[in-house]
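User: Need the bound-state model for FE2/S2 (inorganic) cluster:
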Amino acid sequence: MPKVVSYLPDGNRVTEIKKGDNLLDAMLDKGVPLSYDCKDGVCGSCRTKIIVGKDNVSNPTFQERQLLGHDEVDRGLSRLACQMTVEGDLEIQQYAPRSISTTKYAPGVPNSTED
Ligand code: FES
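Assistant: Bound-state model below.
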């Protein structure tokens, strides 16, 4: 069973979860208070840094790449806990929740700064 070491604002925890489990759901089931909101890869509340084991999780989803950017995702600096399944040991750290603007302007549609 993969072991997940989590470094959280209120303390560190070591948790064993089942291989193939969704990281966020498994940690919440074990009582580890990861932050989250939508669980759909939309809000960014579950943004998580993988300190050790970035190759021990599922490949980034389209939502992760769109919300967090290719560079951060590929380097393991940011992933979405709600979008990952776990295949091996990890050390993770959650960022303080932040607002990530997903608002994009469609081409040709004026935004509020244009007249
Ligand atoms: S909980 Fe919203 S993106 Fe993961």
